[in-house]
Amino acid sequence: MATKRRKYTKRWLKGPDEFISTVDVALDWSSHHWPLLIGVALALIAVGLLGAGLIHHKRGIERELDTKLSRANSLYRQADEAQKGNYAQATRQYRALIQEFPDHPKVKWAYLHLGNIYFKTRAFPQASQMYTQALERSREGELAWEVALLGLGSSQEAMGRLKEAIPTYQRILSLKEASLTAQAHLALGRCYEQLKNPKQAFSHYSRYLERTRGDELIREKVEALKARR
């Protein structure tokens, strides 16, 4: 004959003569519902294993990306030091990295280095494209974002598109604590000097000198511009 299961009501639990601990109630309930508990436990274990597997997989991807990025950076530095302008190997490595990890946040550095390579080889339209890609993948205010803006502005300036370069550089100055503020002022000084605007050129060159240890060539420019304002 099956034992009739006791029903635990709030009133019974509060009764002075029928006091029972929460642990006893839980044990009694679990003895009648063990298949459900086992199922829940197995499900939790499966979720835990899946989560651990995903974390391990993600870490593996991070290590692989870092290794390949480091290798590409090494080739880039070697080409720089050789001063021969042969960046073919580094370019292939960066492009392969972009193709393999298109959505990874760190891929912005591959775009930045490609921008630098194209700029150094005077392929300014391609440099502009790479810096734009890096900019789109960077958070506003972080160093990569500033470097991408400075590179983009430099490419626009090199192509003679000064009226595009100026607002690009000014975006760096829009930050309260930008790392490249001095470089942005220097670039703006160059642009305004080329546009025959001595007042603005003087202003930005002066701000550049305030933030650096000094540049004799720029000091000479400032003195010359002071007389032309």
Q: How would you describe what is shown here?
A:
This protein has 11 helices and no strands. With 229 residues, it is mostly helical. Among the domains are: 105 residues, Serine Threonine Protein Phosphatase 5, Tetratricopeptide repeat (Alpha Horseshoe), CATH 1.25.40; 50 residues, no CATH class. α3 packs parallel to α5. The longest helix is centred in the first third of the chain and has 49 residues. It is elongated.
| Dominant shape | elongated
CATH architecture tag of the domain at 55-159? Alpha Horseshoe
What proportion of the residues form beta strands (DSSP E)?
under 5%
Q: How much is the radius of gyration in Å?
A: 32 Å
pLDDT < 50 runs, ≥5 residues: 10-27
Structural class call reads mainly alpha
The CATH superfamily of the domain at 55-159 turns out to be: Tetratricopeptide repeat domain
Which fold name corresponds to the CATH topology of the domain at 55-159?
Serine Threonine Protein Phosphatase 5, Tetratricopeptide repeat
pLDDT average, as an integer?
80
CATH classification, class level of the domain at 55-159:
Mainly Alpha
Helix content: over 70%
Distance between the termini: 108 Å
Order of SSEs = HHHHHHHHHHH
Secondary structure: number of strands: 0
Sheet with the most strands, sense and barrel status = none
Q: What is the number of helices?
A: 11
